[in-house]
Amino acid sequence: MTDEDRATPRDPRLLASVVLDRDSTRHHHGSDDDGLRAAEAALKTAAEPEATFKDVMSAGGRMTLGVLFGLALIDSVDNAMFTVFAPDIRESLRISSSAVAVVGALAGVMVSLGALPLGSLGDRFRRTFIAGLCTLGWAVAAAGLGLVQALWQLVIVRIIAGLGKANEGPIQGSLLADTYPPAGRGRVFGVHRSALPLGIVLGPVLAAAVAVAVPGDRDAWRWAFAVLAVPAVILALGVLRLPEPARGRFEQEALLGGELPPDPDALPVTLAAAFARLKKIRTFYFVMAALGAFGLCVTTVPIYLSLILEDHFGQGVEARGMIGAVTALGGLIGAALGGVYSDRLFRRSPEACLYMGSGALAALGVGFGIQAYAPNVAIYVVVGLITSAILFFGLVPLTLVVASVTPTEFRATAFALVGLYLALVGGLGGALVTGLAEESWGARAAIAVVAPAASVLAGIILASSAGHLRGDIARAAADLLEERTERLRLARGDEMPLLQVSHLDFSYGPVQVLFDVSLEVRQGETLALLGTNGAGKSSLLRVISGLEHADRGAVRISGRTVTYADPATRVKLGIVQVPGGRSVYPNLSVSDNLLIGGYTLLGDSRNLEQRAHDVLERFPLLRQRLDQPAGTLSGGEQQMLGLATAMLLRPEILLIDELSLGLSPVMVQEVLAIIEGLKADGLTMVIVEQSVKIALSIADRAVFMEKGQVRFEGPAHELAHRDDLVRAVFLGKGAGA
Ligand SMILES: Nc1ncnc2c1ncn2[C@@H]1O[C@H](COP(=O)(O)OP(=O)(O)OP(=O)(O)O)[C@@H](O)[C@H]1O
């Protein structure tokens, strides 16, 4: 037993509570806690005993991997066949070589473009349905390819084919992660990835077989693609019948001892919220940066390597295809070894698995550099076999690392981003950099410079994320545990706070302004949010109402998690914010302001007139000015109009920023009278207010914030006696309240 084992409990649930405790200690003391990382490493090993591939298959069933492998294989075969048949397609359709090349690249571009929307859909809807539909579309495109007569038709079918293929990374990746236990995921990803090199080998074989079957036919390629449509349809039907696993089920079982019951009220994750969260997962951020750099090397360099085969070794199209197929065999071996070793290393230590990936990334570019200067074809092929093996050996652990640090709610989006960075960021950059280098120095020197530089840089970036890996895994685990605690509270029928903010971190770009903020507001309560200048009060309100997205933590309304929901959804659930300052359409009349404000936020005109009529009962002053342009209202009247518009939305909880800012004392009294009326009617409110006196006169409870942290929370009358805090607000504002 190692020291690490002794220092951390073996029971996953106990471990997760260690994680939570240590995480909160880290927040309070502001220090990074090594113990947290050690705990999470043990969590991984404790939760998952070593499993044979047979165990892994019996846990998830062979069907899912079999069908998804089949899908990946026909995708790859299709690509390979398109390359092989490119000259025939060119002749049949009487189009130029460059047109065929552009169309050939089109499918790849569509894979990149389609991945993100598909990933986002995959985080919301049945992934088996999406994958099935994409494959059916793909099958239609393959059959259609056999029928095309003109370039534009070719473009359309290849666009459809590319979109169909785009499900592979995000949808199939996340399905695999949720179907097979983490202890065997490396091997599962390895098998799935090996479909790509296998397709490169089989594509030319199938093409040759069809050419033999239809001898002398210039249109043999049409038959080849039509043939491919048959297994595609069968696989599409197969994927539609696959079981849809719950998202994150293995993580839940390991940590919580069972799956969380499905949440029928779960709200869709918005892309913006997923991005905000993902970019704050440091390991993920580093992986993306590394892949951007790696893409410089891996997307365009192989094309220049192929040019070298022609220019320096005089190899024609067929020979080049053959060499491509032979070197792809290395990829098969690499993917298999990558799967076995990444599982083994991850079990031992997640960092080791990461280093395996970074070492492979770095080695690949060096391998390409050597391949570019191969003295003859034989050495070129041998080095090509090795580089192909290294590539697939390195991609598997990366997938495993990404799966382990990303929240399971948007793992498909995370997988989509991986592909996007590699292909678009790296690919476009690679085309530019390698192209410029090739023009100046020739293909060989360009490869020898660009490929090692980019891939060693990628390896270094990736390796330097190792220090964050355990902490990121631990935080993903802790978030899951916290979600479970809240769901249990809800299921038990405990009285839930109307608003709950839990362990919230938030940053503007690199600058963090909220640190582990937690607070609760009960039904009917008025909470004053006080604090020094720049303490983060407005930012907190913006995160609650969804105008900004948290780096970490949760926002719930009546126990329902809205953390990843968009502002409009939150408005519909009753979270309504009255923005600070003058927030009216100045050229529109007061009544139009009300109606438009209500319409844009509600998205329809549901009884708006009636609602406006009801709301105006409270705002007699506005009623007298209904036809007056809002811009001509005084500051206080505009503040009232903002309040009235918010009330039109029938909020469950009203968030008011800077209630009395810039108002005359008389106007303050009028606004306060309205707020008191709302309070008497039982409306729940959070009020950010500069004046402690005003705030404490209407609030039941107060929260005092300083430098992004909650310093005091308690009954309003208690805060009135905390001279230190009250003085801080006075001093912070510099003016009396
Ligand atoms: N859009 C923004 N971009 C970058 N930084 C911002 C942005 N808005 C606010 N900040 C910074 O975030 C921190 C918190 O600001 P916030 O407005 O939330 O504080 P506050 O408590 O409402 O302050 P005040 O009472 O002075 O309005 C401040 O340091 C501020 O400079």
UniProtKB/TrEMBL annotation:
Domain ABC transporter: 499-732
Residue span(s) of domain Major facilitator superfamily (MFS) profile: 64-470
CDD domains in the record: ABC_TM1139_LivF_branched
Cellular compartments annotated: Cell membrane
Presence of keyword Transmembrane helix: yes
Main location: membrane
Biological process terms in GO annotation: L-amino acid transport
PROSITE patterns to which the protein is assigned, alphabetical: ABC_TRANSPORTER_1, ABC_TRANSPORTER_2, MFS
Molecular function GO terms recorded: ATP binding; ATP hydrolysis activity; branched-chain amino acid transmembrane transporter activity
Transmembrane spans: 98-118, 130-152, 195-214, 220-240, 284-309, 321-341, 353-373, 379-402, 414-437, 443-463
Gene Ontology cellular-component terms listed: plasma membrane
Keywords of this entry: Amino-acid transport, ATP-binding, Membrane, Nucleotide-binding, Transmembrane, Transmembrane helix, Transport
Listed InterPro entries: AAA+_ATPase, ABC_transporter-like_ATP-bd, ABC_transporter-like_CS, BCAA_Transport_ATP-bd_LivF, MFS, MFS_dom, MFS_trans_sf, P-loop_NTPase
Protein name as it appears in the record: MFS transporter
Species: Dactylosporangium sucinum
